[in-house]
Amino acid sequence: MTILQETPLQLRVIGEPRLLAGLREGRADLQRHLWTHGAAPELTRADYADLTTAVGLRGRGGAAFPVALKLADLPQRGIEAVVVNGSESEPVSRKDRLLLTMAPHLVLDGAVGLAKALNAPQVLIAVHDGAAATSIRAAIQERQDHLRIEVTDTPGRFVAGEARAVLSVLEGGPAVPPGRRVLPTRKGYHKRPTFLSNVETFAQLAVLARLGSHQFSSTGLISEPGTQLLTVDGAVQRPGVIEAPTGIPLETVLQYAGAPTDGPVLIGGYHGQWLPRPDGIKLSRPEVPVGAGIVLALTADSCPLGEVHRVAQWLASQSAGQCGPCLFGLGALVDDFSRLLSGDPAGWHDAQRHLGLVPGRGACAHPDGSARFLASALEVFGEDVRQHLAGGCGRAVRGLLPVPGGIR
Ligand code: SF4
What is the structure's pLDDT at 246? Predict the structure, then answer.
């Protein structure tokens, strides 16, 4: 695999640059954007349906939902808005704010092009990063899209990035998901049909519209062609965002980022899963839970259960507090892990019990994702559990997994 470019901005490309093309010198204003990518073609709704079906494009926010199915679920008329979810509240992810900051016109091309094809009267962009918001607002001023485009600042809490929490903020409400799970395609912005997806999805649509399905499929997997953005962090020498073909071996990404060769790896972020050794794993959706494209490496000399406990405290603090199993269940799991770490076998038993009770009982996926992350830790770090129950693993908690707020 050839490394084609590396910038001082921690943007790196393995293989062919697409979303990150032309960013070597910095942010792409409209002139540089057009010079790099050319003018955006005007496509119809049928064109978008055909293209996204042909390449099997999936949303890049975490759920990996097929874009073509989302388009097909929209009614033929009365689509209220196209919503760009740039909340990126997973604390490790950097890719969406990077696109908004460095390649705002690519994101706008994808959103505006689709809105026009759907006859939607407006594009609404939710952003929680100050630099990203400034960049996208400046980009809107450079263009003449003849369409209402609004940028709304959202809070940085984990659940504030959930689709229905984003819609609530855009409507002037609180940044929490409402009680019922309803598809935005049916009842979205002001309960009207809405196409909502994350920032990278719109950038991918802009690239797909220009390249067409054949050229778009010239890299990556046959089943999910194209490239993907990955945020690599933790115990790596070169953290940052990497654009790589879909299906790239995880081992290649880790080597390129300078990860240790002997530590465990978390993929998919703090709703993701642990892998003891990444041998033979290829990064593609939906076979591997890549989520929002996050890869976190640990060293073998840091206590993984202690690292997980730090993240569990943060996850519990992010509950919106409106669903009992989430509010009390995640808090109980933090306590369970705390007791397990200090050698109490009841902590392990209670964790197993609570992990069976929490999923599927909240109004959003936060408890499910948090439980998945913790259950995966207990499974993969079984030997570490035994060591703690026998008196301790002897390793320090080095704080290699980033958590906001300074949890120790
Ligand atoms: S499950 Fe948790 S985070 Fe989700 S809405 Fe309920 S209380 Fe809030």
Answer: 94
User: What was the pLDDT predicted at 156?
Assistant: 75
CA 404 to ligand 1 center in whole angstroms: 19
Are both 74 and 202 inside the same structural domain? yes
Question: Could you identify the atom of ligand 1 that is nearest to the CA of residue 367?
Answer: 1
Report which ligand 1 atom has the smallest distance to the Cα of 327: 7
Both 161 and 87 in one domain: the answer is: yes
Q: In 3-state terms, what secondary structure has residue 162?
A: coil
Q: How far away, in angstroms, is 312 Cα from ligand 1 center?
A: 15
pLDDT at 1: 36
- Residue 5's pLDDT is 40
Does any domain span residue 401? no
Ligand 1 centroid–CA 402 distance in Å is 22
Asked whether 363 lines ligand 1 (CB < 6 A), one says yes
What tokens does 44 get? 């119809």
Do 176 and 58 lie in one domain? The reply is yes
Q: How far is the CA of 366 from the centre of ligand 1 (A)?
A: 6
- Alpha-carbon span 46 to 57, nearest angstrom: 15
Q: E-assigned strands of 121-226?
A: 122-127, 148-153, 194-198
What pLDDT is stored for residue 406 in this prediction?
56
* Residue 173, domain extent: 15-216
User: Which regions in the chain score pLDDT beneath 70?
Assistant: 1-9, 179, 277-278, 286, 405-408
Task: Check whether residue 141 and residue 36 sit in a common domain.
Answer: yes
* Token pair in block for residue 138: 């400046």
| Mutation choice for ligand 1 from 90, 167, 176, 318, CB with most ligand atoms inside 8 A | 176
The answer to whether the CB of 167 falls within 8 A of the CB of 186 is no
367 lines ligand 1 (CB under 6 A): yes
| CATH code (residue 205) | 3.40.50.11540
CATH of the domain at 358: 1.20.1440.230
> For residue 357, how far is its CA from the centre of ligand 1 (angstroms)?
15
Cα-to-centroid distance, 181 and ligand 1 (Å):
11
Which residue bears the tokens 């959103």? 111
For the chain, what's the residue count? 408
Q: Give the span between the Cα atoms of 354 and 363, in whole angstroms.
A: 18
Residues 261 and 199 in one domain: no
Assess whether the C-beta atom of 160 lies below 6 angstroms from ligand 1.
no
Residues 19 and 93 in one domain: yes
- Which of 274, 297, 320 represents a domain boundary (last residue)? 297
219 close to ligand 1 (CB < 6 Angstrom): no
